[in-house]
Design a protein that fits this description.
Layout (H helix, E strand, L loop, with lengths): L9 H11 L18 E5 L32 E4 L4 E4 L2 E6 L3 E6 L13 H13 L11 E6 L4 E6 L6 H8 L7 H18 L6 H10 L12 E6 L3 E6 L18 E5 L4 H10 L4 E2 L14 E3 L9 E9 L9 H9 L3 H8 L24 H7 L5 H10 L3 E2 L5 E2 L9 E6 L3 H16 L4 E6 L1 H10 L4 E4 L11 H8 L21 H9 L6 H18 L2 E8 L4 E3 L3 E2 L27 E2 L3
Length: 594
Amino acid sequence: MDKIKYIATLPFVCAVLLVVGCGTANRSGEITDFPRDKTLIMAGFVWSPPTSFNPLNEDPTCPMTGDCFLVYEPMFGYNMLTGEMEGILGTSYLFSKDTLIVQLNERAAWHDGSMLTSEDVVYTFGLHKKYNTNLHSDCDYFDDIKACGPHCVKFLLNTKKLNPLIMQEIIGTALIIPKKAFYPLEQRCIAEVKTEKKGKADPDDIFEKINAFKNDSMPLSSGPYSLYTYSDQKIVVKRFDSYWGNVLHGGAMPKPEYIIFPIFKSNEAGNVALSQGNVDLSVNFVPQIYNRFKKGVGTWYKDKPYFVPGTIACMLMELTKKPFSDVHFRQAVAHAVNYEQIRKLSIYGYAPPLKPGLIIPFGPEKKYYNDSDAVRYGVSYDPGKAREILKAAGYKWGDDSLLIGPDGNKLETVYATCPNGWTDWESAARILVTGLRAVGVDVHEKFVEEAIWWKDLLNGNFDITMYQTLDYESIATPWERFYKTMGSFEWAPPGEVMYIDVQRYKNPVADSLLLLLPTLKDEKSISEVYRSLNIKFMQDLPVVPLMYRPWFFYEFSKKHWSNFPTADNPYSPPQCLIVGAGIKGLWNINPLGK
């Protein structure tokens, strides 16, 4: 077909919903009437009724997000176990001094049978560079992209922002869209804006119309699944049996014919469904997951920590305020936090014991971790050491046991915030508050609505708060974690929005190391710079790491499907069968009994 329909017909959608059901559970507790030996049900990916399936939208609904490769596909997918990029639409890539050349798979095709070519890739990135899309800011890292053959593209890199790490992340997340479908839409939007604005065509006005396109009626795509139907209760994708990529799996098709994303009203509702076998795979936080093993629930590891650590939850202090601007104070309070208690109580032992620094000493990052530096520069739970540091820095204690600053003034009451209902963070906040109060800090926990917390975080309107400066893994970690924690490149005073370094740390040495590292090629130099960054981090403590958390809480039920990837059977990473290189798991799970 030449183009997709861009306006859904409501009667047709309603008719489909009547046929497939509305997504509520039946009397047996089942969520779906689809055949269970052909249907995989996944919880935790969608939490509100879908609003847009447009991959250009700033907040598209799963499965059109940049970390889900079911419908649209990127050129590569990241493997969190190996730290490598695996080919999807792409087969290889090569950096030179100021270019990145990507070879595409010559067999890649759209669902209408037409070939997916460099023209589609160039057009996709052209849209992101031209308009304020969800990937627009990433396009600063390259000046242009050109086709160098029907199955090859060349990125002309921005020599002022050379960053091969981020460029690899980009080619592993940007979903390629069909030019034949979106170009007519773009031209139609341009024409409408020119008519409305009397000949003027501002890019923001054009994209506002492109962004409004829901893409919910038979969207043309290239992935192993296509959008089948949706409602306020669930989203359903259906296998595209003639998927071009089946050839990469010996000609076999993905095992599930349908994948359903139910929209639960609460985390606990999804957890109950997992225990009942009415959800097959979940990324929800499940308290005491080990108590559900007897009900057929499984995790990556059979025993603690059950999940693969991939992110770091931290305590942030707003560093333009006293006493948080005092590095001695930060070092002291870091010694006052009972990290092992947080690990055991807040996250139920779902992570290994915390080690000092901002590098995760497991998996692909392990090669950059230096244990001797951690011993020399790191902090650990030691309230006595905390008091020693405070005393040496000129702090005293009043008759009420609360701290008096070096200037002779009593420290003001401060608050430790986190979003209301984020139970593991709430628990961690209570534990850190107890520890800080024990050494004289007048601090109280304060749980607020997520929207309020988020606004205050970005504007620097907080004393102490909980946050993950990076909540995912990619080919660019741990550099990206350091960048978003220590990079002052977008520094602004409190009251102005910041998206990285929200605690407002500033250090020219850290900035120079962050700019240098992505340009290095030899592993020895890369390791040396990571070592310098981690030492600087441990010395200055711009944030205080509290606990490791998994990128995904990867949990599955064995009631209807078997052969999920695990540490004992690691044929695919624990990326939930739909994220990055984890998607290959869809070809290897089996309906129970088959």
